[in-house]
Amino acid sequence: MKFLKLTENQKFLGACIAIFMLGTGSAIASTGNAPDSVVAKLNKALIHSMKMGPSSSYESRFHALYPEISHAYDFSKIAHYSLGSAWDKLSAPEKKQFVQALTHYSVANYAAHFNHYAGQTFGKPVSKSVPGQRMMVSSTLQSGNGGKNNTFDYLLSQNHGQWKIVNVTTDGVSNLAMQKAEFTGALKKGGIHALLSDINKRSEMLAHAAQ
């Protein structure tokens, strides 16, 4: 489910916490996209975005990251579990709109915050099995200027034989409870159209701030 000088690590933490939330897993099957490979490809895309840096536009970083992030994450599952039982009450078009808005907002967060390179590197992802036929992949962003390192624990489940990220815990902080409470609260207060409007406005604000 929302990163680099003195405030870089704070930005990384805040941006990652704002993006992702927990989902549930499906049966593990043989697959060519190993969980650690999914995270490694994502890390590579994020480093590339940082290296594009301030000399690039927000739009160029957004379009470079969109296919990588939308492929790595299971936004349909994330959307479902972020709204809980309210998801089942939405129409098919509303569900589609919410998934699209959430995906756009997530990529916007990355494009806005992964925009400065100062020698950072990601450590090799390490994976392990966890209950529910899922996998946990840990990866550490190592500061290139002596600052604080950040550890990301990605929870992956399978969707039609493909491993997808459904949650990220950043330095021990997961966004599931916060994001779910925020979205379901907004949904109860103003309905799906108000929630969609709020998410879209956040994306616009990120784009504007990153110009």
Structure commentary:
It is built from six helices and six strands. It has helices at 8-19, 35-52, 58-72, 75-83, 92-113, 176-209, and strands spanning 121-122, 126-130, 134-142, 150-159, 162-170, 173-174. The radius of gyration is 17 Å and the shape is globular. The model is unreliable at 1-13 and 17-31 (pLDDT under 50).
Topology:
Layout: H1 8-19, H2 35-52, H3 58-72, H4 75-83, H5 92-113, E1 121-122, E2 126-130, E3 134-142, E4 150-159, E5 162-170, E6 173-174, H6 176-209
Antiparallel strand pairs: 1-3, 2-3, 3-4, 4-5, 5-6
Helix pairs in contact: 1-5, 2-3, 3-5, 4-5, 5-6
Keywords summarizing the entry:
211 residues, alpha+beta, disordered N terminus
